[in-house]
Amino acid sequence: MSLHRLKAELGAAEFAPHAQAFDPALDLISVMPPAAAFFFASTWPQGPTGFDLMLAEPWDEDTMKDYRELGAEDRMAVLACVGFLNHELVHRVDLLATPFGVSFHGKACLETIGLLLEGAELIATLERQDPWRPLRDIPPVAEKLVVSDGMDTLNARVRWFDALRGAAARHVQPGWMSDPGVLSLAGVDLERVIVHELMPTVLVPGADGTYLRPLTVLESRAVALTGLLLLNRLGGDDYAAVEVARFLETFYAPREAFPDYRFLLDLFLRLWGRENLLDLAIERGAIGLTGLLKAVSVVGWYGLHATPEANSEAPLNASPMLRVVIAMQELIKYLGQGNTLLEGVPFLDAVDRGDGADILGLTDSRETLDYSLHYVRGVRRHNQAANPNPHLLAHFDHVLALQEGQIERRRQHGYEFAAGLPEDGSVLRGLTAPECDQDLFFDEEPPPEPVRRWFALRENLLFREARPPEFWPELWSTIGTHPGASGLSSEEARALALSRARFVGEDGIWPTYSVMVESEEEGRALFVPVRDSALRRTFDAGEGPNVETEWSAVGLRGEALAALRVGFVETEEEVRLLFSLERHRGMVEALIECGRLVLGNDEAFAAVQRGELHPKMISCPVAASAEVLETAVEAATAKALLTRYEHGWSVELDEKGGAPLDWAVEAYGWHEPAEAALFLAELKGKALDYALIVGLPSLPEPGFAVVLTAIGPSASVRRFREERIAGTGGEVHQLSESEARELASAALLEANNELRSRGLGGIRFTDLKPRDVRLD
Amino acid sequence: MACSEINVQTVDYNEAGTEAELLAAQVDDTQSLDPVYAKLDSFVEELKAQQRNAADLLPADAEPGVGFMLNQKRDGKTLLQTIAISGRESLCDPEGEVRKKLSEVTQLGTGAVVSSVMFTLGLPVIAVPIAVAIVGMMLAIGIKGFCQWASAPADEPASA
């Protein structure tokens, strides 16, 4: 085994920040160079424990003698293996005991709940229309800087996390708002950029588009504190400094390959006037290297005290990167005043009182910790109340409870925290009260597999473009899981998730296929596109156009509710027709006026009749029975007619919407549910070949409860008859033009009679052309 | 996104298969993975020009972590190593589609293997060069050699 092999192993070792888990498969000892492994075996005959490795106590003379006798590569391997665990624990502490950590896990929790409760329809749309597109690349619905609810907020969180992980260059724009140019820091000009229009930061010079991000702060602190630990292990003298500097230059080189680890170190090197760490250690010894490593950890600690959320008065208060910049500027000033000794906590308190913090409206540590406590408690309560997935609920509750305890303990002490700013680099210094602190460092149990899998799925859904065959079923099985719903197939889970979705979509994402339906009561969008299985066929295709729809309208607690069920749609063009929002009035636009557009099934309609159904529950692509539709249509008719009157609605059809169905359109266009006939005409305007009107004879209404259209060859008509009508009691007529006129005339007459009997006036035709149909 | 703007990309798998065969021959000739790296290097550069990250085209088998020394360098070699880590399990599945297609490569053609890699990893159309690189490597050193290499992706596989 060689140092190269060890580096490869360490290069693949990761600490999972969401799951808070170490890499379980890591076995460093087995890949250590033999001499280094022998050093370990002789130093710790029983094998080193975590405590052995993470304490910064200097090795005794014998151990140091053994160490010095090792070859250079072996010594570096020893330092890597000794420092590894401390490095990972710095991450854990930083993510569990700081306001940034509260923000990280809090946002992850809210994002998860958002995806589970509100994202199903968005995800379903993504799946059927652009399955390789990461959720991150869906543009925000609204151009608002501050969002607080619904899909806008979910979208903002997704972009925030992408900014954290390292967004692609297309999401990185030059300048800070209206303030372009460079930021000069430690003599280095840094290009200002903003990521996803959310995160102002600077580019790391020579790092191929990498920018200063929270990960930079996390890694810099882990490197710096572990460097301090190793320095103390080796005795804290100048020899130790050179060894540690060599270790850092060995493992974090070339610097362009490790920008997150090196950026702050290199900036500080410039302050000390050196090009690399070895030069600094050789020329300024342990004092110089200690000063540099402490400075990095202290400045990073300041960055991690950004508030979890910004407020409108101080929007930059939530930016870890800007806090790092402010702290660095203050440090440069501090060193420029001839100070050589950096005391972390007093220095950071002074930064809070400095001009930079004042200008940006940064809050001091106590206020930040107070707010963080308030935030974490709020998120935790929300998680307990709203998270429908038991594994994820338990995971977030565990993490948030841990954070709550740590932040509560810290709030009286501000920046002072032994595990965050350990003098000797060992985070175990923070283990002052084992009964309280043990969980901060170690979990008794690793996170369960469903939690790990969720964060992998999330990564793929939000940020990746690959979609292996198992991806969608696994995603739906997770999203559709809730207490009492175990053992569902992925299809069942998918249906469940969709039926539970609170917000099912908004306009602006795929406007061609979607429609915003305003509800006066809620003021939110509720929209259901063509169901997934239909749209799948849309793009697989090929047999020619074929659309079948069934629709109806039902009354629900005084609110009109329009329900649409799409049988199957086979071409893109048909989808466009179905959901066209062009200037002329289409079926969907007519339905918008009714209030809501949802999918319905037998059970749903029955529930409506019983008054037991909330609209959001209606989303099952099962055929509505004639009997249920009959009642539902009747219930809605009066309300729908009133709605027409209130809107002064008149019919304007496309010129192409001519015979043979103009008559039917005119008649049914007035009589609820005859918007379906409008739709029929609209389809006809796109050159349909056949139209079917299906009457359900048991209906008391003069119109037709269900209007079904078929476009294209008569095979589709036959298929419809065989597959959809059989057994429902419905009738199928394939009409000639003259039959359609006759039927429409009769329907018009009956519709007028119906309207007059209800005191609603009647329809007066001044011309037979649809555009002239208007209300009395 | 209006319907008229939908750009349906297609893959010419025959052409992709020919590319993979050519790449395999180059690996054979040079007894190194340099031709594979070079192909992926140019792909990474192409993506950079489009302001995209190559790693975002690959499936993740776990949440990305923070770590002791995670290399941020983005080139063909690191991309191939990333594929090895995240795609090893599915590509090397004894019952998997890729092995099946490879065993029938003479009847089905190399394009079918490229297609099966695309399917197995769920790659988008733009990522065809990644599948070509993997198949080229598999043809050159065999699926067994590929899977051995992928279990501990060093610079060179033993049999290259």
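qc> The CA atoms of residues 90 and 120 of chain B lie 7 Å apart.
qc> done
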